[in-house]
Amino acid sequence: MDLWITIGLVAVLASIAVFLCYFISGALNFDDAKRVDKARTGKIDQDS
Questions:
Q1: N or C of the chain: less Cβ packing under 10 Å?
Q2: Does an H or E element contain 34, and which?
Q3: What are phi and psi of 40, to 5 degrees?
Q4: pLDDT of residue 48 exceeding 60
Q5: 24 vs 8, 18, 33, CA distance in Å?
Q6: What pLDDT, in 10s, does the model give residues 27-46?
Q7: Residue 42: which region, alpha, beta or left (left: phi > 0; alpha: psi -120 to 50)?
Q8: Which helix (H) or strand (E) holds 14?
Q9: What are the boundaries of each domain within the chain?
Q10: Could you tell me if 16 and 24 are in contact, meaning their C-beta atoms sit under 8 angstroms apart?
Q11: What distances in angstroms separate CA 34 from CA 29, 30, 31, one per listed residue?
């Protein structure tokens, strides 16, 4: 009985961890680490 409770608890915690890893990695943009944005030209106040 205790073994099944432990296995169930581990399964629930693992599913929560997988969901969080999937959700967080989906929100991150891994292309930003490889790509450098072009420098702005003009004044800082302008939206260019």
A1: N
A2: none
A3: -75, 145
A4: no
A5: 24, 10, 16
A6: 776 666 677 767 777 666 65
A7: left
A8: helix 2-27
A9: 2-27
A10: no
A11: 10, 7, 5
Sole residue written with tokens 């073994």: 3
Round to whole Å and give the CA distance between 25 and 21. Answer: 6
**Structure token pair of residue 8:** 């169930």
pTM of this structure: 0.54
User: Which residues are within 8 A (CB) of 41 and not within 5 positions of it... i.e. 6 or more apart?
Assistant: 48
Cβ neighbours for 42, distance < 8 A, ≥ 6 positions apart: 48
